[in-house]
């Protein structure tokens, strides 16, 4: 049976091979979708993040972390499964005070941590790729009461797909920079089913929003969800 490299490692390896990472200025805004400038910005995380602890699960190259650390004065920790991504993030933004990058599995990081956070977020990151009935309670345990979890995931109806009718993951594919497609498993829920899983973890859904990208057809492409710890 053929084996495949981790799609996230392969993606990072191709990005790294394309050229050396170099220090970058922070972005002008926080992004949640596949189209820059679309949708809300950092306000969805709350109004007072200055000197507060914030966590990103699946931080990739760290753009949103740099934004929050510089523009909002937050202490932001980014966790990513792929060490190459963390190396890249540190090369881009390691010079920024308040930005910390950690290589590791999102669930294992939470299980080993004692830190409480003012906000936790994921942008096409760990949420949806780790079993929700394990990850969401772990997130809730590290989120202060009344504070926000926000995440964006690929829309379950993209390209004419149907949202999952059960709690099992479905086969999806990641397209690499060279257009190779590698398989992975993803939990793909509509907003109502996400609300049920969030409620089971002690988180109350308070915002949902759908976005599309005309370059990818007329189907919605991104589902953005925010919930508050009860």
* Helix proportion range: 25-40%
Global geometry = globular
Count of individual domains: 1
H and E order:
HEHEHEHEHEEEHEE
Total beta strands: 9
Residue fraction in strands: 25-35%
CATH architecture: 3-Layer(aba) Sandwich
Number of helices: 6
Enumerate the spans where pLDDT stays under 50 for 5 or more consecutive residues: none
Provide the CATH top-level class.
Answer: Alpha Beta
Could you give the topology of this structure?
Elements: H1 7-17, E1 53-57, H2 63-71, E2 75-80, H3 83-93, E3 99-103, H4 106-112, E4 117-123, H5 132-141, E5 143-154, E6 170-175, E7 181-186, H6 191-200, E8 203-212, E9 220-229
Helix pairs in contact: 1-3, 4-5
Describe the structure concisely:
The protein is α/β, with parallel strands linked by helices and 230 residues long.
General description of the model:
By secondary structure, the protein is an alpha/beta fold. It has a single domain, classed as Rossmann fold (3-Layer(aba) Sandwich), CATH 3.40.50.150. It has a seven-stranded mixed sheet with strand order 3-2-1-4-5-9-8, with helices on both faces. It has a two-stranded antiparallel sheet with strand order 6-7. Helix 3 links the parallel strand 2 and strand 3. The longest helix has 11 residues.
């Amino acid at each position: 049976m053929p084996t495949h490299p981790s799609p996230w490692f392969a993606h990072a390896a191709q990005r790294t091979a394309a050229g050396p990472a170099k220090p970058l200025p922070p972005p002008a805004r926080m992004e949640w979708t596949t189209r820059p400038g679309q949708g809300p910005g950092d306000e969805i995380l709350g109004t007072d993040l200055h000197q507060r602890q914030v966590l990103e699960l699946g931080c990739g190259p760290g753009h949103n972390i740099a934004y929050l650390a510089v523009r909002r004065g937050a202490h932001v920790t980014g966790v990513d499964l792929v060490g190459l991504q963390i190396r890249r993030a540190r090369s881009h933004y390691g010079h920024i005070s308040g930005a910390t990058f950690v290589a590791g599995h999102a669930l294992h990081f939470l299980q080993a941590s004692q830190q409480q956070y003012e906000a936790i977020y994921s942008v096409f990151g760990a949420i949806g790729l780790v079993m929700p009935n394990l990850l969401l309670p772990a997130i809730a345990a590290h989120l202060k009461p009344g504070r926000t979890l926000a995440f964006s995931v690929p829309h379950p109806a993209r390209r004419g797909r149907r949202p999952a009718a059960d709690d099992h993951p479905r086969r999806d594919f990641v397209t690499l920079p060279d257009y190779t497609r590698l398989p992975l498993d993803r939990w793909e829920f509509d907003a109502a089913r996400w609300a049920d899983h969030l409620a089971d973890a002690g988180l109350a859904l308070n915002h949902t929003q759908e976005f599309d990208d005309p370059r990818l057809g007329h189907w919605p492409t991104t589902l953005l969800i925010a919930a508050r710890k009860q």
